Amino acid sequence: MGIIGNNGTGKSTFIKMLLGIEQPDSGNFDIGETVNFGYYSQEGLQFDEQTKVIDAVQKIAEVIDLGNGNKLTASQFLQHFLFAPAKQHDFVYKLSGGEKRRLHLCTVLIKNPNFLILDEPTNDLDIITLNILEEYLIGFKGCLIVISHDRYFMDKVVDHLLCFHGDAEIRDFPGNYTQYRDWKSLEDKRVAEETKPPKPIKTSEKPVQQEKTKLTFREKQEFEGLEAEIQRLETEKEQLAQQLSSGNLSSEELINASNRISQVVSLIDEKTYRWLELSEFA
User: Fold this and answer.
1) pTM of the predicted model, to two decimals?
2) Where are the alpha helices (DSSP H) in 120-216?
3) 33 to 30, 36, 37, 39, 122: CA distances (angstroms)
């Protein structure tokens, strides 16, 4: 299941209440005794800098059971997430920021949770790690909640959405991110037609300024263009991901492609936020 919504609509707060990190103002969450949560977020990078990579994972579990009789040792699991054997014996303080985030993900997954929660994973992880994570999640047998504005990633791993609109308004939508956006566009047009006010009677009185309820002409043009722009960026991102995973790029090409895909991901997030803002008045 995916969770989407503008900043400040309560997405992360909902997750923290589910995990027991924060308490609800009223009511309660009834969590089953066999539920084993795994939680990845941007706030989770808390390692002893003097710990070796392999030790940070092995102190959680020596082996992970993947089901169907398949098991991986901690070292094999780290290799799957691009930590070469030599790298596994480096101290945490030697890792780059991206490597530390990848290690954080490994420490979450090797707990073998049956209820996995990922809060904005595409903001932190490089595209190669995301491709590996996508493969892992597609085969994941437990419950999954993903908070993200990355339509490409969400479409790959979720088939149900909770859409947070703020002020405790949440819509339950049976579909992926693209299907929701298509539905939302049609629904906004339908509501606009049904609520279209009658033509006002001309009067000499000065009209009272009202709260904004619809888009300006320029905003409408921007809104209509955002859909195509986001789709173009999603296509470029997918092409770059394929190039990065092909193994055919030179060192310089690899660096250029990695830099560009980071820019594309940021642009997708920026334009998706804007699309969500404008869609409230479309």
Assistant:
1) 0.68
2) 127-138, 151-157, 177-194
3) 9, 8, 11, 17, 31
